[in-house]
Amino acid sequence: MGSEGEKNVEGGIELQGMDDERKEKVMKEDEVFSVERIFENKEVPSWRKQLTVRAFAVSFLLSVMFCFIVMKLNLTTGIIPSLNVSAGLLGFFFVKTWTKLIAKSGMLRQPFTRQENTVIQTCVVASSGIAFSGGFGSYLFGMSKQIAQQSEHRTDGFDYKNPSLGWMIGFLFVVSFLGLFSVVPLRKIMIIDFKLTYPSGTATAHLINSFHTPEGAKLAKKQVRELGKFFSFSFLWGFFQWFFTAVQDECGFAKFPTFGLQAYENKFFFDFSATYVGVGMICPHIINVSVLVGGILSWGIMWPLIENRKGDWFSADLPSTSFRGLQGYKVFIGIAMILGDGLYNFCKVLSRTLAGLFLKLQERKANSQMPVTQHSSPSTESQSYDDQRRSQLFLKDQIPKWFAIGALAFCNAFGCGLTDWSLASTYGKLAIFTIGAWAGASHGGILAGLAACGVMMNIVSTASDLMQDFKTGYLTLASPRSMFVSQVIGTAMGCVISPCVFWIFYNAFPDIGYPTSAYPAPFATVYYNMAKLGVEGFSALPKNCLTLCYVFFAAAILINMIRDSLGKKRSWFIPLPMAMAIPFYLGSYFAIDMCVGSLILYIWQKVNKAKADAFGPAVASGLICGDGMWTLPSSVLALAGVKPPICMKFLSRATNSRVDKFLGS
């Protein structure tokens, strides 16, 4: 993964549950202790027995829940924390509870194994991942009429395509499976020959292995209890807040001017979101601080200064939502930072990938030329007991070669194995500009660019995800066949569940996609305007906007260079450009929530680090899942036309006096 545990994918940033320090600790522990000695007396079930009905039933239920959670995050800020811990923990809890009940009746035929747990994990993450990589908060929703209208672009039939269940499901089925089949023949090379670490897959495997030890099972039970407590609190808190939001865009706790009305107008307030407090507890501290720094730089300094140039840099008569005015600066300067960060990391990861591939090929060549005695070989002699057992079972169940269609996503999958960075969004942006410019404005270049972005991102994203799953399966002795089947079934689930969940949001909240909405889908606007920029060029930008874009594009590259030159230990105080760019369009309210979560975790770690490390992810997951699941009943209520009974609104003293006079007259 990238610096500080960040994985750059799709529209926003997807953040993993473990930072670099914890992942290194996990891998060192695996080197010192023999994990497979603990499980050597337990039979490894065949690949067919790893694929159980109960596993896929639990996977389906968890997939629905996580799709709602990811969709809410995707349509609000685009910051998605890793839900691997939650998926593994809840999968373990549900199946373990089920098997205990069946065992009491004497009808249990097959015990719950870590291999089955891995199948559930793979299926759930593959399914809920479609809610993110499917583009519902970026390229796919960016095709819609409401996004196109906001950019003041002509909206004929070539410029937009409104969402509908039929074409969304069909599109996802076409593009989501290409990446899976492209890297199947490469799994032995990547996992065994090159021994790529795939840090996220390794960390997930360590988690699952720990669940199935006696001590780990006891801890998992306590973690589930904590997750359940905070899930209930978060769900009920969302329900309580709903009563005070009769006019959704103006009322409720989320509109509380924490730092005063002037700060509120500039998007500085705490909106009492349990979701983003939980996200802040999961994300590394540097991510939370970077987002806050970006909000202060943009909404605290830059936008007020540019607003003062109204009438000079842009017309004073333009509405606040016009992209020829202040809104244009917000969006395009943010895009410039995202592109600068993406280009730098693309070059960095590509160079590391090529260098790593060269070294691995050289090592392989050197090993093949070493003299081998009659009784030993260099490969087996250097392998530990764990590696020998894992390699034996990993190669036992072969996946038929005819499943593969080529090595389309090799570069991204290899780079992800070395660095844990997925460059899916960078490939997608390249597709937007190249295909959009090639097609041209008169031939639907904007839609062509966005569609090409979806194809490219899904191919490279699912390929790297599958290799992460293969690594998890390798370390838990799960069969590659069961991993592949689970990934395919999970992807198919996601191709149906995710569009259905988005369709609920789309119909329940008519203002979705607009800046004033509870679901502004900021990256849909960003991706549409990237496509527009690729097709039309810079002519539509406001005055001096292009110059500022160049400055922030270069600044993003420079900041990354400084961070890398200083190293991890000395660069902890330098913010991340990608995270800084997110609040440029949205504001800082969610950054304050995240920093509150970060502060809670920091204090907890100072008071009791062991307990914070053990239960912090569970508490954070409970906060995210509870508030995320409240969106289901709130959407149903909105579709049924049921409105909250109370509007809690905050006014200035002067406005309140005028209201009192009006009511008293």
Sequence-ordered SSE layout with sheet pairings:
Elements: E1 6-7, E2 13-15, H1 20-32, H2 35-38, H3 47-50, H4 53-76, E3 79-81, H5 84-104, H6 114-133, H7 145-150, H8 165-176, H9 178-182, H10 187-193, H11 199-211, H12 214-242, H13 261-265, H14 274-282, H15 285-307, H16 326-369, H17 378-382, H18 385-394, H19 410-419, H20 424-439, H21 445-476, H22 480-508, H23 522-536, H24 545-566, H25 577-581, H26 583-586, H27 589-607, H28 609-639, H29 653-664
Parallel strand pairs: 2-3
Antiparallel strand pairs: 1-2
Helix pairs in contact: 1-11, 4-5, 4-6, 4-22, 4-28, 5-6, 5-11, 5-12, 6-21, 6-22, 8-22, 11-21, 12-28, 14-27, 14-28, 15-27, 16-19, 16-23, 16-24, 18-21, 19-21, 20-21, 20-23, 21-22, 21-23, 22-28, 27-28
Give a quick precis of the structure.
With about 675 residues, the chain is mainly alpha-helical.
Description:
With 665 residues, this protein is mainly alpha-helical. The protein is 68% helix and 1% strand. It has 29 helices and three strands. The chain has helices at residues 20-32, 35-38, 47-50, 53-76, 84-104, 114-133, 145-150, 165-176, 178-182, 187-193, 199-211, 214-242, 261-265, 274-282, 285-307, 326-369, 378-382, 385-394, 410-419, 424-439, 445-476, 480-508, 522-536, 545-566, 577-581, 583-586, 589-607, 609-639, 653-664; strands at 6-7, 13-15, 79-81. Strands 1-2-3 form a three-stranded mixed sheet. A hairpin with a 5-residue loop joins strand 1 and strand 2. Helix 4 runs antiparallel to helix 5 (84-104), helix 6 (114-133) packs antiparallel against helix 21 and helix 21 (445-476) crosses helix 23 (522-536). The longest helix has 44 residues, at 326-369. It starts with 5 loop residues before the first strand and ends with a helix. InterPro entries: OPT, YSL-like. It is a multi-pass membrane protein. Pfam families: OPT. It is found in: Membrane.
